[in-house]
Every structure is written in structure tokens, then in C-alpha cells.
Amino acid sequence: MHGGKLQSxxxxxxxxxxxxxxxxxxxxxxxxxxxxxxxxxxxxxxxxSCQVLRPYGSGTxxxxxxxxxxxxxxxxxVMHMNIGSGMGGVYNIPTYGFPTGxxxxxxxxxFKTTSQGLDFYIFSYGSDPISNPNGNNQLDFKMDDGQDPxxxxxxxNGNNVFDxxxxxxxxxxxxxxxxxxxxxxxxxxxxxxYVDNTNTxxxxxxxxxxxxxxxxxxGAIGTLSDPSWNGELADIQFYNASLxxxxxxxxxGGGIGGDPIDLQHLVGWWPLNGNTKDYxxxxxxxASSNSFFTGGYALPSQYA
Length: 304
Known about the structure:
By secondary structure, the protein is of the alpha+beta class. It has one domain: Jelly Rolls (Sandwich), CATH 2.60.120. It has three helices and 17 strands. The chain has helices at 2-32, 38-41, 245-253, and strands at 50-53, 65-68, 78-81, 90-92, 105-113, 120-125, 138-144, 148-154, 160-165, 175-185, 188-195, 198-205, 220-222, 231-239, 266-270, 287-289, 291-294. Strands 3, 5, 10, 11, 12, 14, 15 and 17 form an eight-stranded antiparallel sheet that branches. A hairpin with a 3-residue loop joins strand 7 (138-144) and strand 8 (148-154). The longest helix is centred in the N-terminal third of the chain and has 31 residues, at 2-32. The model has no long low-confidence stretch (mean pLDDT 78).
């Protein structure tokens, strides 16, 4: 009798065993691809679902507040800079309220790239030093040779008057959070670089910034000339204050769709979620070229 049951069990396994094995393999692959991750099914924030309201107009802080669905959501889209277009993706913006001279600032952004050997710009503004060769005017936060985050000031004839960076290559095809803070004390500059949730380097420089905005050059997110940005950008925030490490970590913790944390000092906020609008309430919306918005992007590793 036992032999009959054993034979039936063996026949069942022979008949359905391969199907069970295939199902197990498919489930394993889906799990590896993150299909069962709750973030995979989470609703994505629509463009403009969260924004800063300034009831008394641009540059004012009275009764300022966040409005809409503002819960550090996952954006529906991110900006993708065109690959191999011969011209880098450029995002031109007005510069209302941007810090000038040696005033403090903080820039944060999420990006993904695999480029090497090219300079491309996360955020840049000021007077074009080629058109205006008489001063230390243009501020650049960029990836030096496509690898390391640096902050530079281009001065007379485009020469770098101020140059500080961190040897922290992040051109690995994965999403990373980057931030830089700056303030001057007397004749000395103080700079902090952050990559993901790590303060990678602190720098003091005997040179202070002298950024100018003359109208000759409005600013860009992306590249300024020939090199193509080979990757994606999201959630760029710009403050006219040097934020501390707790604030930087809070912005990082908000993720790729994080909300600004210091509305009083917020100058510009470009989620780049389906459009090029500035949602800081300061009217620094722009227009892009050689780029597009994609919803088919992979989430940063912190969502795994």
C-alpha cells in the first residue's frame, strides 16, 4: 500500500516537477529585479504635485509654505540628457535671487552617469567669462572629467580662479546624491562636499568667490557646450545659505523626490519631474534643449 502511494508521489513529481521548478526560477528572477519591492508598485508623484507657495511674491518669506502632495514621493519622471547628440543637454534658467559675490550657498542634486573624460555641469550660473573677461564671475558645480564633484569659479578668459573638489568618482551608472555648501569668513572660503549620506571632504581656501550675474549668461543645469551629459538628473535644490550636515542628511533622506527643508533660504527648486519649472515660488523656471523626460528610470539603491 505504501508502495502505491510512493509511486503516485513520484509520478506527480515527474509530471509537475519541471513546472514547479520553472515557476520557482521565474519568482526568483522577479524578486532579483525588485518586482516584489513595494516601491515598484508605489504611486509616482505627478509633475507639480508639490510646490512652495509665497503669498507675497517672489523673494518673500512671510507665510511661506509647502502645498500639495509633499511627502518625499517618488517622481514620475526624471530629466535625461541626450547621449551622443554632439551638444550637451542645456537647461537655461533665470537667476532671480541667486547669491552673488562671496555670499553663502548650498546646491544639492540627484544624478546618474557613466561618462568619463568630459566636464559636465550639475549647476552653473554667473557671467560668461569669455564674454566678460574682466572678473571672477561664473560659478560651476560640476563633474570634473566626468568623475569627481568639484566647485569652480571661472575668471578672466575662462581661467579657474577658484578650484576645490573631492576625489570621489561616482560615474558608475548608479544614482547618487551630491551636495556642496559654501561660506566665506573674511578672506577664507569654507566648502563641504557630500556624496550620498557621507561628508567626503571639508576644504578651506585662501580664495573667496566673487560670483556676478550680468545678464550675459543666465545659468545652466547640464552642459554648457560640446560634451554630452550621459545620464539623468533630478531634484536640484539651491539655497542662499550654507546648510549644516543635519540638513544635508535630511535632504538625502527625502530621496530622489525629496522636498526642500529650508524654505526661508530656498532660491530655486527644480524637481525635473516632467518639466523644467522652478517650484520654489521664485519664478526661476527655464527651458531645456537636447534632453527629454523619462518615466522608465531605475530607482536609487536606497529604495531597494
